[in-house]
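By convention, each integer encodes one residue's backbone shape. The lines below illustrate.
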Amino acid sequence: MNVEDKLKHDQKMEELKKKNQEEYRKVRSALQLACTDTNVQVVLRHIAKLSGFFKSSVVINLATSEVALGSTTYNEGRRSLYLDLRRMMNDETRRLIESKGEESHD
């Protein structure tokens, strides 16, 4: 890679980094609405439930009593969706969403 290509690559990487930071800021700001908007709370609780956040992701093969690696990996991948959102929430939002566990979305 010559110097010119490296500069172009570095510039693209910097643009991508800025774009990702802006997206992160927007999502984090939107998640803060959960503190005052019960509709946002309902949606986030539903995402947590669908992603399997409130359950163990480990699956045991009943025939062999061993961990089913494929199913466990799948469940962890699904669970990571909510974990990515959770990482952007403040403590108050996390408490609001997770305090009810898997209860209904009232």
Notes: The beta strands are 60-61, 66-67. The mean pLDDT is 92.
